[in-house]
Each structure stands twice: as C-alpha cells, then as structure tokens.
Fold this sequence. Notes:
The chain is of the alpha/beta class. The chain has helices at about 40-45, 80-90, 105-120, 130-145, 185-195, 250-255, and strands spanning about 30-35, 55-60, 70-75, 100, 155-165, 175-180, 195-205, 210-220, 230, 240-245. A hairpin with a 5-residue loop joins strand 7 and strand 8 (about 210-220).
Amino acid sequence: MKKTLKKTNPKPASSILTRAKPIEDIDSHVVMLCYGQAGKGKTVFACTFPKPLLLIDIKEKGFESVIDVPGVDLLEVNDWDEVEDVYWELEKGTKYQSIVIDQLTAMQALAIGKIRKDNDMDPDEVISQRSWGRVSGLMVTWIDNFRNLVGKYHICFNAHEKLTEPQEEDDDRIAPSVGSNLMKSVASFVNGAVSVIGNAYVREVKLEDKSTQIQFCMRVGPHAYYAAKIRRPVSAGPAPGVIVNPTFEKVLKVSKGESLSVKKTVKRK
C-alpha cells in the first residue's frame, strides 16, 4: 500500500509559489572575489564599486592608493569581535551601496586568533586538526553572512594570492593552481559563493613606438591554472579572458553579456 504523505504543521498562509517572479525582473547585486599579489590593484579596483562605499580594512593598511577617491568611507578592523559587529550594523541597512572587505586573508588570521583565545592556547602552540576545523567553520559562517547582504549591497571580497602545488592524491591535476590565500575549505566555499572571481595582475606591453606600458589587468574568463569566473547569460557566449584597467562597470557589462569593445565613430565627408 502506498503511504499518504501528510504535511506537518500546515499553515494557512498563501502558496509559496506566489513569491516566484520572472528572473529578468530580479534586481541583482554583484558579489565578487578579487585576489592577487600585493600592489596589483585590488583595492583600487574594489573602490570603483558604486558609492557611497564602505571599505573595511582588516589590518591591511593599504588605503593610501584610494585616499583621493570620493564617496569612500574607511573602517579599520583589528579583532574578530569587530568583524561580527560591523556585519550586524550592515544587516540593519545603511547608506552604503557597496561593501568591500579588504581582505579575507587577514580576516582568516583574526579567526585563528579568536580560536586560540577561546581555547586558552599559547601563541606558539600548534593548532590541532579540530581547531583548524573551527577556524574553517567560523570563516565560512561569517563570509556567508556577508555574502547574504548582497540583496542590500554590492559586495567585494579581496584576498591575497597563493600558489598550490599538486599533491600525490590529486590524480586529475598535474599542474600548480593559483587562487586566494585561504584554507582549502574556505577558498572552495568562497569560489562557489560569489558570482565573479577576478585575478588581479600587472603586465607590461610594448607599444608601436617600442616603448613599454604597464597595464593593470584582471583575469575573469576560465583559465587552466588561475581561479577565475564570471556568471553571464549562456546566449552571450564565453567571457573575455582578461579585462584591462578593470572597473565595476566593466565587470557588470561582461556579466550582462555586453561587449567591452569601443566602437569607433566614422565621420562622413
């Protein structure tokens, strides 16, 4: 005999399907991970996000490059309790359009410090596997909390870069990979939680007059070694591999499937 499924604690509320709406009508915000080596333009890029913008500097002290950018408020955070405090204030709703966390690698260091303090550990005491699990859980929980503010703000997480060599158990990976300098479990979570992963780097290009020019760039298209992605309509085709002189507007255009090419105006005689 087939068992009849009964709904537990039935509620007289209207159908949950009334919340469904056309996907093209959803006003989405950008949630992004930008990672790279020091001095590659992460903070400058992040501060191109819509203003007013809150730059949460977690022991980074790297705000000199954006000190003349209007519409940016700086908040320096130095311990884990302040990380949680700023989230609860942002959750209430604020004047800001964009939130930048600069950067996750330092936030992870604060999480390690909190776990050490909670367990009365000495500064040089080796962290156990269990404690590392607590650090991971703490980071994932609060990164997720900040990510979920995306309904109210554009979110940009900055992080330092790390090269990971393949291990013996990685049978399907024979080359090194480059991503954010975070615990493997945390990095994996962040990569899946954001809609854009950009790798900031600098390249030198030769011009026609044989001089050289320094370009700030960002990898966003799929890459064999670098973690990079940008979610966009399937009909738009593959994303460009690199954005030169990246800005929020350029990232937004690519995510919408628009072209970054500049159309030249032809003057008629």
